[in-house]
# Entry
Amino acid sequence: MVTGYSIPDFRLTDVECDALINAVSNVTRSRAGARHLMGNPAVAALASDSRLVAAARCMLGSAQAVPFRATLFEKSGKGNWLVAWHQDTALPLASRFDAADWGPWSEKAGIIYAHAPASALARIVALRVHLDASTLDNGPLRVIPGSHAAGVLTDERVRDYVKTHSAIDCPVPRGGVLAMRPLIVHSSSKAMIDQPRRVLHIEYSGSLELALGIRLAIA
# Structure
């Protein structure tokens, strides 16, 4: 997709959103939300939902779409935060390896991570499932359309890119889904109102095997 993001034309129901909110109500949270939720049965079921898988397959242009990582992002009056302009370049991996353009390496909650090259990130898409309405007032996602085509950028190049390209806000109704490429330059501001903004961010690839000896971890 030329823009690097899209909003599929289906929505989860209020009942589905309420059930998911309840399912993640007791997960261990940081200030911004919770990571590594593929082990949560309700989140794993959502990730394999035929509607989401079809949307991921369409954006990947692949016969398969395998969910491998799920993260909860939560803004509220108690946890109001902003995210500076950036790209998502770190991937969870089953094991360490030596390969050009991979790294630096890190470990988060027992999962190995490495920053990936553009060739690997081009095989990934994220679906952001909005458990609450994302409005212009509660810190919605902002993106620079088409920026994923610029490849992996340094922090300095991201800042320069933002100065010379136009951004748009991405409000999404409750239950709505936004699909995005990890290399699209994006950010979000602090919420201006005390209205929750909970998003399940689920990532997919056509295969867990990115290359010989390079396998995504389920996280």
In short: The radius of gyration is 16 Å. Helices lie at 14-23, 41-47, 50-60, 118-121, 155-164. The first strand starts at residue 5 and ends at 6. The chain has five helices and 15 strands.
